[in-house]
Design a protein that fits this description.
5 helices; alpha/beta; YbaK protein; four-stranded mixed sheet; 9 strands; single chain; five-stranded mixed sheet
């Protein structure tokens, strides 16, 4: 699972920095560990579903923002959004809670998950995600992240997160 991330990045000629750390399930825990610097942002990653449960969204936002699910639902013209269950996370992205990451899209063979990206992330030089496990983090340039996310082939929408 983690190795698939590195193989994919290498296949796409994406340079990355990897660092290990104790298991971290939240942005708050990562911030306490004080990994990175001002040029690097550890994205907050949320896995949501609509009220019918027939659409799933991976939401990537700035770490200090709160996701306004009502506002997001309005922007994407969806029914009410809520957190998806661990079972859905496993089914669609092959991930466990605490390791939600866009690298899980490698496992989304049917391209069922839509990706919602906070527009403010494009001001960052580098961004960091878990490589499908929460005991490591991988930093790539925002430009390379865009390359990776296009390669995945999932539907992408840029959103304004308040």
């Amino acid at each position: 699972m983690e190795d698939d991330v590195y193989k994919t990045l290498e296949m796409l000629n994406i340079t990355y920095d990897r660092f290990t750390h104790p298991a971290m399930n939240t942005i708050e825990e990562l911030n306490k560990y004080n990994v990175g610097n001002d040029d690097i942002v550890h994205c907050k990653n949320l896995f949501l579903r609509n009220s019918k449960g027939d659409k799933h969204y991976l939401v990537l936002i700035e770490p200090d923002k709160r996701a306004d699910t009502r506002g997001l639902a309005r922007q994407i013209k969806s029914t009410r959004l809520s957190f998806a269950s661990p079972e859905r996370l496993e089914k669609y992205l092959g991930l466990d809670p605490g390791s939600v990451s866009p690298f899980g899209l490698i496992n989304d063979k049917n391209k069922d998950v839509e990706v919602l990206i906070d527009r403010d992330l494009d001001t960052r030089q580098k961004i960091t995600f878990h490589p499908n496990v929460n005991t490591a983090s991988v930093t790539i340039s925002y430009e390379d992240f865009q390359k990776y996310i296009r390669w995945c082939g999932n539907k992408i929408m840029y959103v304004d997160v308040g």
